[in-house]
Amino acid sequence: MFIYLVRHGETDWNLQRRIQGSTDIPLNETGRAQARTTGALLARRQWNGIFASPLSRAMETAEIIATAVGLPAPTPLAAVVERNYGVAEGHTAEEIDAVYSADVEVPGRETRESVVERVLPALVKLAEEHHGESIIVVAHGGVIAAVLAAVASDHPHGRIANGSVHSFRHDDGSLTLIDFDDPIEEESERQGGDDFTAQNALARRESAAP
Q: Is pTM, for the whole model, over 0.85?
């Protein structure tokens, strides 16, 4: 059974490098174009279902992809909603640095461990319910980063770009990374745009920590 995790398309806050987290910011026109490009790439394969975080940027990305690949409307999957970044949401790196130094915990931020604890079991359950199938799950940069840290900590990876695709296999109750930036996704790297950590100052701090 295969799960393909897709990061939603770009939003204005991504463009402005403002931390989004659980704040519901819609796609911009670039994000919609990225979703259409990703949908066209995914349409080269056969799919059995599509699921998405209920936040509008993920749901709209999934709706665009569903149309492209010939699937019914996406099913909301609450467990893959983006990580909550607490009071940092809506702020840029400069604004956060002015208030919270790197060694100060930002109030209300969800830990990566908590993200893994809610996301990974939900994905495993989904895989078990769709044994032998291939499904798409549209989620967020923080969610994908947490899954990668949990199941492929020894596998270095590059940018988690808007519209990027990352493939996993389910075996015996666990997920295994097949490809970060799955080969189906090579063309979408040409869309440009920032990496998730470039857009999210707290994620950048975390990835740089020893």
A: yes
